[in-house]
Specification:
This protein has 204 residues and is an alpha/beta fold. It is built from 7 helices and 4 strands; from the N terminus they run E-H-H-E-E-H-H-E-H-H-H. The protein has a single domain, classed as Rossmann fold, CATH 3.40.50.300. A 4-stranded parallel sheet has the order 2-1-3-4.
Amino acid sequence: MKNLFNLKRKSNHKEDIIIVSGLPRSGTSLMMKMLEAGGLPPLTDNLRKADIENPNGYYEFERVKKLNEGDAGWLPEAQGKAVKVISALLPYLPPNFHYKVLFMRRALPEVLASQRKMLIGRGEDPNEVSDEEITRSYQKHLRQVDGWVASHANIQRLDIDYNQLVLDPLPLIAQVNQFLGGWLEEANMAAVVNPALYRQRSGK
């Protein structure tokens, strides 16, 4: 899918809120760590600790999960920083800020396999809903996200192919840096990428 840019406003990285988003298990934690290594501070409370699924940490901020309840008072603190917002919560971002969204795209079979492994690790039933049903739901959801982003002038977006990022990071890192203003340390970002953590490969 081509990258989507909205150039209606000249951005200021000290005012922009950098949103890292995507489906669960799509590489958002990796991108957060890369941005931090590149020099962009993350907004995180470190309440969710690293584990076997995300050995480098989840980079979450708990109050993000209450966006759908109207809790947006933390957003001024996020200006000039990166914050992880799951795709389902993007429509709850208030319109009075400017957002740059790095949207992680990963092959859906890999997303499903990674989620299944996580559920098994938690002792939950991974077969409660079929992969086919989840795939249809995710595809519909992604179309809705595309439409929502396109209808908002305060949002710029860059899609990042997780599969390509892990296997050949430098070209996409350059795109990310350009998108965010060109001041990030690309070599530091590349050093974060560890192909050994690329599990649940679909063969894409």
